[in-house]
Amino acid sequence: MKYKALTLAALLMGVSIGLHAEEIGSVDTVFKWLGPDHKIVVEAFDDPDVQNVTCYISRAKTGGIKGGLGLAEDTSDAAISCQQVGPITLSDKIKSGKAQGEVVFRKRTSLVFKKLQVVRFYDMKRNALIYLTYSDKVVEGSPKNALSAVPIMPWNSPQQ
Fold it and tell me: Signal peptide position in this chain (predicted)?
């Protein structure tokens, strides 16, 4: 019993420690008489460990009374696009491959147990950063996912 309580506390702390995204905009998808409408939200965040990479996520956000109170569970639908916005410098940790599968973004999508995550991989052979977004739950996750790749090229150089 003590083990379950510690696990739950760790999960709650992990869910609350998220990297923040800036909301760019949203569109309503379903009108609700009470509470906010269901919508698709577009958010941007910068990779915390790779300077000059910005990712844009679009995700479903549940409205209604439950959604307005923060009690609704959002669907697992999300899309991602990441872009190089300046010269990229990789840390030694990323270059060495020790940062494979590192979570660079996390957003709670239900009251406690569900979250949307973005995980970064470094493809050394192709010199590219790969960003995978997916949704998971404590008990079961979703196979829905989206992927974006950022080739690492010298900034403003002609492509060969």
Answer: 1-21
Q: Which amino acid is at 105?
A: F
Q: CA dihedral defined by 95, 99, 100, 101, rounded to 10 degrees?
A: -150
**Residue 138: CB partners within 8 Å, gap ≥ 6?**
11, 113
Contact (Cβ atoms closer than 8 angstroms) between residue 151 and residue 125: no
Domain count, the chain: 1
Q: What share of the chain is helix, strand, coil (3-state, %, to 5)?
A: 15, 40, 40
Residue 27 and residue 53: Cα distance in Å, rounded? 25
Q: Residue 11 sits in which domain range?
A: 2-20+41-60+74-151
Answer yes or no: is 158 within a domain.
Answer: no
pLDDT at 155: 57
| Rg, Å, the chain Cα set | 18
Sign of CA dihedral 123, 49, 22, 144: positive
- Mean pLDDT of the chain, nearest integer: 80
